[in-house]
Request: fold
Amino acid sequence: MTIHQKNINIEEIVKADIAHHFHPFTDHKTFHEAGGPRVITQGDGVYLWDGKGNKILDGMSGLWCVNIGYGRKELAEVAYKQMLDLPYYNTFFKTTTVPATELAEKISSVLPKRFKHVFFTNSGSESNDTIVRFIRHYWKLMGKPYRQHIIGRRRGYHGSTWVAANLGGMTAMHEQGGDALPGFHHVQQPHWFDFGGDKSPEEFGLEAAADLEKKILEVGPENVAAFYGEPIQGAAGVLIPPSTYWPEVQKICRKYGILIVADEVICGFGRTGKWFGFETMGFEPDIVAMAKGLSSGYLPIGAVAFSDHLTKDFFAKGGEFYHGMTYAGHPVAAAVALKNLQILQDEKLVERVAELAPYFSNMLKALADHPIVGEARSVGLIGAIELCKNKKTRERFHEPGRVGGICRDHCFNNGLIMRACWDTMVLAPPFCVSKKEIDEIGRLARLALDKTHADVKAELA
Ligand code: PXG
Reply:
C-alpha cells in the first residue's frame, strides 16, 4: 500500500494536540509529561501506521470495532455516493431515508425472527440510554409502573453517558459522576479467574447467577424491570462466563418476568463466531443493543432491536415516544453499515471467525505456560490473557493495572496493540486476520510478556 503520511508534519500535529485536544479516558497530566499522543495516520487490513512510519498490528480492531479490517474501499465509495445523493435527512416525524429503512430491515434479517423493529442511535452509549428509557416507559404502559429497577454486573461496561455509566459497574466512573442515579443495581460478574476460588467454573457460574436472584429478591421481584449484560464482558477483560451462567440467568429472569437485555456492542456482528453473542452463550434476550461492528467503525452508528412481544403492546398503546437523536439513522452511516453487513455476508466473515477460532485459541493457549500468565481464554476472535504473580493460586500483582500497563506498553513498542483491562490483556483482531498474522500476534505477545516478566521478576511468588 502507499504510505501517505510523508506529507504530514507530525511534530506540529503533536504540538497542536497537546495544546487543544481534550482526550477521552486519558490522564492529561501523564499524557503531557509523556510528550503527547502517538498519531495514527493510516490503516490497511489488520495493520496501522503511525506518523513516524511504524507499522503496528492492531490486535484490538481499533476499540473492538473495525471488524472487517482497515482500508475497505467499498465503504468509502458507498459513503461518497450517499453524500452526493442525500447527505442528511432525519427519521423523526414520520419520515425516513432509503438507507435507514434498508438497514433496519437488514439488521432484523440477521437477528432471530422475533426482532422485527430497530431503533437507530449514534453509539453504544446512546443505544443503552434508549433501552433504559424504553423499558421504564414500557412497564408504565403495561400498568406496572413499579417495575423500574435495572440490574447489571460489576465491571459491566455499557457506555459513558450518565445513564449508561450507571448501568455499568465501573466504580471509578460512578465516583466521578456524583450521586448515582436511582434504580440501578450491580451483581457478581462471572469471572472465575478472580472469584471462582476452588470451585469448578461450572459451579461458579451457578453461584454468580444466584447472586442475581439474591438481588432480585432484595429489590423485590415485582420492582425489577430488566437484567442487563454483555454476553461476554469486554472492557472488564473479556470475561467469558462458564457454560452454566447464562442459561441459569435466563431461567431466573423468566421466573420473575424480568426482561433480558443483551448488550451486543462488542459481541455483535460476528465477534464470537456467530452473528450475536447470545447465540454463542445460549440465551434469548428481549432487547439487543448494538454499535461498533455494525459499521465496522467506519462511521458512528448504533441500533437497538426490540422483540415483537414488546413492540406489539408498545405500539398498540399509542402515544409518542419522546426520544431520538438528530443523527439517528443518519443516511451516510446507515449506507456504510448496510454495505458492511453485506460484506460480512458475501465474504462469509462470520463463518471465517468460527473457522479461525481454534487457531486463535491455540495461539493464546500456547502462552499459558509463561511464568506470569495464569490463564488464556477465547471465543471466536475475542480473547484474554490473565497476568498474575502466582500461577497456582491465581494471586494478582499488587496495584491492579500496573503490570498490565507495563505489558501493554511493551506490546505497543514492539508493534502490537494488545489492550490491558487492569491486569488482563485482551485481544480482538479484525476478522480478516490471517493465520500468519495470528502467529505474529502470538510472537509479539510472548515478546511483551518476556519483557514484562523481566521487569517484575522480583515480585513473583
Ligand atoms: N456497550 C459495550 C459492551 C461497550 O463495550 C459501549 C456499550 C458504549 O459504546 P460507545 O459507542 O458509546 O462507546 C461499549 C463501548 C475499552 C473501551 O477501553 C470499550 C468501549 C468504549 C471505550 C473503551 O475497552 N466500549
